[in-house]
Structures are given as C-alpha cells and as structure tokens.
Amino acid sequence: MSAEKNHPSVSPVLVLFRDDFRLTDHPALSGACTTGQPVLCVYVHDPETTRGGAIGWWLAQACTALADALSEKGGTLHHLSGHTPDVVAEFAQAAGVDTVFWNRRYDPTGKAQDTALKARLEQQGINVQSCAARLLHEPWTIRTGAGTPYRVFTAWWKAARTMGDPGRCLPAPRQITFASLPADARALTLRTLPPVPPLPAGANAAEADWPCTEADAQDTLTTFVEDNLAHYIQEHDRPDKDTTSRLSPYLRAGLLSARQVWHAVSTAATTPALAENAEKFLSELGWRDFAWMQLFYEPDLAWRNLRPEFDHMPWQKSPALLAAWQQGQTGYPLVDAGMRQLYATGWMHNRVRMVVASFLTKHLLTDWREGEQWFQARLVDADPAQNAMNWQWCAGTGIDASPWFRIFNPVGQSEKFDPTGAYIRTWVPELRQMPDKLIHTPWKADASLCRQIGFTPGKSYPNPIVDLKLARGIALECWKNLPDRKESGR
Ligand SMILES: Cc1cc2nc3c(=O)[nH]c(=O)nc-3n(C[C@H](O)[C@H](O)[C@H](O)COP(=O)(O)OP(=O)(O)OC[C@H]3O[C@@H](n4cnc5c(N)ncnc54)[C@H](O)[C@@H]3O)c2cc1C
C-alpha cells in the first residue's frame, strides 16, 4: 500500500468502479496497478444509472465500503457527478490521465455509455482498457453451431461446461500507488456526496440482514461452502431451511465475483456427493450468465413480451389485488410469507419468488411487469437481467420459459416446500398458533379451533382473495384464446 503521491513526470491511470465494489478479482484495478503508474479510483453518481429503492441503498453501502477499503490503503475514491461519458472524459483530461480502465458492462445503458466514453477518450488521446469481470463467460462467447445466441438454458449450460472453468481469480493488488489530484481535476470532484437513498418503508430488517463489505461477502461464501453446499440439492428449494448461499446481493454489487464463487465451490467438490451438489449449484450460477446473455441480446427484456402472442393477454388491472399481493395480504400463507420477507428484508427465497410470481401473473392475471417493478423496488439483489428474465420465465412470456399452463398451486407448493409451516410462521405471525395441518389452508379451521387459538378468519388474517380453481380456469381460458398462440408453437 502507499499513500497518494505526486509524480509530476508520470501520468496517472484511472480506474472506474461500477457495480464492482471490491479489490480482489478486479481486473481493471489489477491492470491499472500493473502499469506501475499512479492510480486514480473514480466513481460516478450518474442520474442515468443511479437507482432508488432497496438496491439504491445497497449499492450506496457497497460504494462506501469500497471507499473505506481504499482509504485503509492510503487512497481515495474520487466521486464525480453527471453523465459518465462527459464527466469522466473531462476529469481524465484535467488529471492528465493516459489510460482509463474499467470492467465491461452488458446492459443497454451501460454499453451505450461505455461506447460513447471510449470514443471521447480516444479522441482526447487517452487509452482505454476494458476487462471481463462481471460474469463467468461474456455474453457473446457461447453461441450455437449456427453462430446465434442460445435460447434454451440446458443447451447453453452444456456448451458452457465444455469451455472449462472460467479464468482464474486475481488477488487484491499487493501495492496500489495512488495518484494525487491536480487542482483542476480536484475541482471536478464532489465535495459533498449525495445522500444515501433510504431503504423503502418497512424494510426494517435489511440493514441487520445484509452486512456490506467485501469481507462480509467472502464470509458468506465460506459459510455456504463449509456448512450448506453438501445439502444444496436436497434443500435448495426449501425456504424453511434457508440454506441457499444468500450470495445474490453480494454478486449484484460486485462485492465478490462470480468467478470467485465458481472456484470456491469447484475446489470444495472433493467427494462425489459434494461434486454433485457443486454441479447443481454451479448450474444455478449459470442462470445468472444466461440472464445477462438474454439482456445483452434483448435489451428490452424488462418490458417486452419475448413471446409476442402475450401482447394480447387480457391482464386485469386491479389496484386492490396488486396491493394485496404487494403487502402479503392474499390469504395464501406461502405467498404472503414470501411477500412479507421481501418487504422486511429486501430478499426472498427463490422457490417462493417463483410461487408469488406465478400467483400474481396467473391466479391474479396481473401483468408480469407490475411484479418485475415491485421486485426492482424492494430487492437488495434487484438485477436488471436476472429479475426480468425470471419474471418472463414465470409468466411464460420469455424464451425457454415455464409454459403458461404450468400454474403453481400455492397450497401444494407450501405443503411440499414448507411442510411444517416454519417459514410461514416466521413471516405470518397471525398464523403461529395454527396447527401444522391447517397452516397452509387456515380458512379451513373450524369454529371451535378458531375460538381456542383466538383466530378470527378474515380479521386475524385475510380470507383467500381468489378461488384457486376458478382463477386457474380463467387463466387457462385466456391463454387458449390468445390469437397468435398456435403460430408460436406453444
Ligand atoms: C420472479 C423472480 C425474480 C428474481 N429476481 C432476481 C433478481 O433481481 N436478482 C437476482 O440475483 N436473482 C433473482 N432471481 C433469481 C433467484 O431467485 C435469486 O438469485 C436467488 O434466490 C438468490 O438467492 P441465493 O443467492 O441464496 O441463491 P443460490 O441458490 O445460492 O444460487 C447462487 C446464485 O446463483 C444465481 N441464481 C440462482 N438462481 C437463479 C435464477 N433463477 N436466475 C438467475 N440467477 C440465479 C444467483 O446469482 C445466486 O446468488 C429471481 C427469481 C425469480 C423467480
């Protein structure tokens, strides 16, 4: 480590941080350090990419953690404000930078900004070095024999596996020589940082649930590998067990890299039983890459039905039903438990995400984009690619999606994946006294039991807002009547 120094004769290099708030396995930072030139670390508060909601709060925490880590090494994270291509180009010029390093982005806004920035910098005679860091494999690197992007996950995953392990992980740079700023450049940095976006109302457990440093991310990975990888196949669908890795927020903010997760899990797979669990886990991590590949090729993934026949779906527009779903007041305990977990903590177990998404789109016949936006506002792992792809998957509107006619029964899912109701009891305290056999269907409790446990149906806890059988029938009928369904082959 070394403190900021003036090196009048040596130009500095600049590292841009964006959703990669870490020092380890950070190719842009390592590349910058390898030049031997003094380094400027920069973050841009860009209105075009700044996020609100839980994810805005989470990314701001991660940015602060990075600033602290750099400060411990004697450096500074310089904050700029404005449109990235404009402010970085101006700052680089003022600071006399000769090369700008960044890790590549794959979302439409990020791609457009980086293309514009590269052009601006090159015009100014400043070099650009961009690196692969966010994914296991960059979106364009795995293609079908015909040279087109894969549309089916299993085929994509098979092809991905033939590529071998992703590249090795880089350690944190042993030494970072930080550059000091000339006055012209210093004048362009923010003196006062924008306020951290507040957590959404009701997200009272998020702060305690999600410690936010690079070390916390590594600890979460180590705990998962040591304690829970061995049960992943058996337990990953069980919200009551809560033994999945819980790495998604850390991956989202880049507090650790997918490569680090991959290598930690692969290395631990020392027995056939562990290897089987590791393979299952790695394929889930593969879905993350697959989602990013979809966003790369379908930039409007978050708002356009990838199956156009769904443009004719007669979605209901009921604010009351949507609000009941958002607030966890549907009368279906597993759905309500999931929505309340999301509300309080900013996270929800994957199995329950699938159940609540199916319930919203099929039983409540509500446009998947309403759910996608609610998740974007509430999740600490809200990710433009993973969220959009999964909503389209659940709604049957996406490529390689679960077909519309596969409608999860929230009661059956609850009995199967939360058999004793432990998860429900955590998040729906009104049902804590309900016996196990009625925890999934509290509306069936008879009057004497209700009296005994002090439960008033419809008052202590809502009665079901829709009849499952009826709602399912309507959903199937609407789908069968979609004008272009036959032409699309499904
Ligand atoms: C409707 C819906 C919306 C979702 N929105 C998001 C989102 O905004 N951000 C997000 O990170 N994940 C999203 N997911 C995927 C998944 O639910 C979460 O990644 C997972 O629950 C995170 O918990 P974990 O880290 O313990 O997962 P683990 O089971 O431990 O999996 C490890 C990692 O694999 C990746 N992964 C696992 N499942 C999926 C999947 N189905 N699709 C893509 N990647 C996956 C994640 O990066 C995850 O952290 C969504 C799923 C659904 C059904």
What do the pLDDT scores average to?
95
What would you call the structural class? alpha/beta
**Unreliable parts:** none
Distance between the termini: 59 Å
CATH structural class of the largest domain:
Mainly Alpha
Assess the beta-strand content as a share of residues: 5-15%
Output the CATH topology of the largest domain: DNA Cyclobutane Dipyrimidine Photolyase, subunit A, domain 3
H/E series:
EEHEHEHEHEHEHHHHHHHHHHHHHHHH
CATH superfamily of the largest domain: DNA Cyclobutane Dipyrimidine Photolyase, subunit A, domain 3
Count of DSSP H/I helices: 21
As an assembly, this protein is single chain
Rg over CA atoms, rounded to whole Å, is 25 Å
Considering DSSP H and I runs of 4 or more, what fraction of the residues is helical? 40-55%
The tally of strands reads 7
**What count of domains describes the coordinates?**
3
Major pleated sheet? 5 strands, parallel
The hetero molecules present are: flavin-adenine dinucleotide
Blueprint (SSEs and pairs):
Elements: E1 2-5, E2 13-17, H1 27-34, E3 39-45, H2 53-72, E4 77-81, H3 84-95, E5 99-103, H4 108-123, E6 127-131, H5 153-162, E7 177-179, H6 183-186, H7 206-209, H8 214-228, H9 232-235, H10 248-253, H11 258-268, H12 272-297, H13 319-326, H14 333-345, H15 350-363, H16 368-378, H17 384-395, H18 410-417, H19 422-427, H20 447-453, H21 468-480
Parallel strand pairs: 1-7, 2-3, 2-5, 3-4, 5-6
Helix pairs in contact: 3-4, 5-12, 8-11, 11-12, 12-17, 14-15, 15-17, 16-17
Residues 236, 244-248, 251-252, 284-285, 287-288, 291, 350, 353-354, 357, 375, 379, 381-383, 386-387, 390-391, 394 line the site of flavin-adenine dinucleotide.
Enzyme class: lyase
Site (Electron transfer via tryptophanyl radical): 315, 368, 391
Catalytic activity: cyclobutadipyrimidine (in DNA) = 2 pyrimidine residues (in DNA)
